[in-house]
Amino acid sequence: MGHASARLGRALAASLALALLGCAAESEAPTESAAPPPLPDGYGQVFVLREPQELYSARDVTVSVNGARLGTLASGTYLSASLPAGAKTLTAALFLSRASRSFVLEPGKAVYITLGMEPAGLPPPSGALLTPAPGTAGPQDLFAIDFVDARTATAAMARLKRAQ
């Protein structure tokens, strides 16, 4: 009787382990309910990503579009917003430093934007946009605001956390 109950116990333990592994595997796979809801007519989707970086990692960057605050991005986070289609200006701000980039959001489409930061005084990264603060001769900080394709953005968002 001892061997039979030991075998039964091992079989139950193995079944439980397989069941738990199955649950874990299912939770990693995207589900239909995880898909974003459809956009309202005349709206597009904006995604702003901030890759993890040590430089200014303790500082959140405020992101706005056409003057309306979308949220803040910590290092290694992203945010998204459904916005009415049309001409847009995205602004990234940290303390007194600001940089802006204009784009057109088309109805039913998505725009993917990456935001990076470089210390003042160093050469800007390729494609960086320099915006001087009002009343100054040059930029106080350098922000890199770049557009990326959906595939690149999706791969990056898999590594990032959604901004709170």
What does this structure look like?
With 164 residues, this protein is α+β, with helices and mostly antiparallel strands. Helix content is 23%, strand content 38%. The strands form two sheets. The chain has a five-stranded mixed beta sheet with strand order 8-7-1-4-9, covered by helices on one side. Strands 3-2-5-6 form a four-stranded antiparallel beta sheet, with no helix packed on it.
Number of strands: 9
Order of SSEs:
HEEEEEEEEHE
DSSP helix count? 2
Radius of gyration: 23 Å
| CATH topology assignment of the largest domain | Immunoglobulin-like
The largest β sheet comes out as: 5 strands, mixed
What is the percentage of strand-forming residues?
Answer: 35-45%
User: What percentage of residues falls in helices of 4 or more residues?
Assistant: 10-25%
User: What's the pLDDT, averaged over the residues?
Assistant: 75
Distance between the termini: 57 Å
CATH architecture of the largest domain: Sandwich
Strand line-up across the major sheet:
8-7-1-4-9
Low-pLDDT residue spans: 11-34, 121-125, 127-141
Overall structural domain count: 2
What's the CATH first level of the largest domain? Mainly Beta
Outline type: globular
SS-based class: alpha+beta
